Amino acid sequence: MRILHITDFHIDSPDNDNENLRTGYYKEFIDNLFYKITEHNLNDIDLIINSGDFVNMGKVENFPHASAVMKYVVEKANLSKTDVAVCLGNHDFKMKVPGTIEEKFSPFDDFAKDFVPGALLKECKRAKLFLSNKKNVQVLIVDNALTELDKNQPINLSLAEMDAIISMTREFAVQSKDLVVVTHYPVINFPMAKYSAEVEGWAKDHVWRDGYNLQHRLGNLRPHGETIFICGDGHIPDAFKTENRAFIMTGVFGGDYTKRHSIKGGASKSFYIETQARIIDFSEDKPLQVSTFNYKPIAYDYDPGAGNWLYEQSELREISVKVKASPQNVVSKTNILGEPLQKAILDRVRIEKLYKIGRFVTSPETSSFSWVSINRIFENQQIFNTLIDKSVEQINLMIKDSSKTMMLGVDFYGAMIGTHISLRVGSEICCLSSRSVSDENDDLMHILLQRLAQDSYKDIIIVTDVISSGSSVLKIIDEIDTLYKKQTNNELDVKYHSISVIADVKIQRSDFDARVSSILTACRDLRMPIFKTDQLPDVETLPARFNATGNID
Q: Rounded CA gap, 327 and 89, in Å?
């Protein structure tokens, strides 16, 4: 995915000689930018983001000119108006004048209707979630500028509004590899921003307090997906990454350079803001990269008619916030197929007293101290039907091409569930009779490998009833990879995914998490502790009630 980020046009007057985006100059200004973008082979752009402040100080009569400038940028990028994300800035509505929120929002709303970043998936009061047209990337646009209190500050979200944004993201974006979040005000205070220490009250006026909670909750919701926060405001351009989140602010694109100052307590303070555009690149096979284009005057004094765009490959700083791992703070990669489905399973286990205590062998190395009957759970037909429905929904979101997907059902219930899902999504299905990948599964593995060798599959979804340590599934993955390489002399280039009925989120499965791209389960909050064999009494003292490796004890 390649994104062009520009922000903060601050159009004060289309005829103002001190503005780069004035009527007689904006095309030349933008032409020169795209010449430099093309010169560095960065012109194959998928999405344009403008993060607000299209007009200056509520001068909504300038939106038609802002629209003309945006449309020219879209034309130069060889895109359409359905490849553009825009959000409201704090200058984009009239403040401290009579009128309802809807009336104040109306001029920006009319302007923004021309620009969308793809298909609308869902919206709530403060946000809209889109699926990009060009790549399988979701774009969450959050309004954090329009306040009902007429304060020129970031809004305060109610808990219900925040929950609605998270709920919407949980429904659609949990399994997407990349999520781009667009806001005007930054969701955090950029750590290298000296300006925030120089100006009294800076954070209150320019940093969205509720953004800290938003980025934290989104990061935890999508622990193994990249979430990229792109903001406007433009005062402190910076870019850094921490864990699975990146934060990018780009300098202003327009504005009257003679008015770049702030006034506090009657004292005027001049400040310098970069005139910038950024290209943000990311994909599955390379890390996030940021390229910055700075507009510099050719003379000592700023001249809005004579300048050049200069390119630099920006350093995306890594900031570590890692905490020593413990069972309480390790974030699992395991995601549920829906809270109602999990609650239905937990209720059935409790009401029907399905939870059994004992020694249940899950692999040669480990045993579980508890077990439940999947058959008894599925006696409730609604649970089974919902499991299939929710699995199909998530697969359709995370898999680009079902014809390049192989469903692999393991054991009886994995085969049954996998067959139903494959019929719904239109994928191939292969079933293994047991968790063992030797002996009785040899013929089935041979057929599977033949299919993988004949067609260029992109995804393999392993479906099973219960994932404990994940070791059995890992052995299947290792066997597939090893045999494929032995037969073809090539590495198998696929992504592995898993779907299960139960997978206790408290069990540490670091090796499993590393090998499997997405882990979906119907129930992750049923505690099923596992122990290494050498941590338990011998089998004569504590006999095994069940052996999932193939033998009943």
A: 42
Residues 6+ apart with CB under 8 A from 115: 70, 81, 84, 85, 86
What CATH topology corresponds to 334-547?
A: Rossmann fold (3.40.50)
> Quick check: do 2-318 and 334-547 share a fold?
no
Distance CA 275, CA 44 (A): 22
What ranges do the domains of the chain cover?
2-318, 334-547
Task: Please give the single-letter amino acid code of residue 367.
Answer: S
pTM value is 0.60
CATH architecture label of 2-318: 4-Layer Sandwich (3.60)
Per-10-residue mean pLDDT for the chain, 553 residues long?
A: 94 89 94 95 94 92 96 96 94 81 86 94 92 88 78 81 90 77 89 56 77 87 85 82 87 76 49 82 82 84 77 70 41 76 92 84 72 90 92 83 85 89 87 59 64 75 87 83 81 87 84 82 87 74 60 36
Measured distance CA(400)–CA(22) in Å, rounded: 43
Give the DSSP H or E segment for 169: helix 159-172
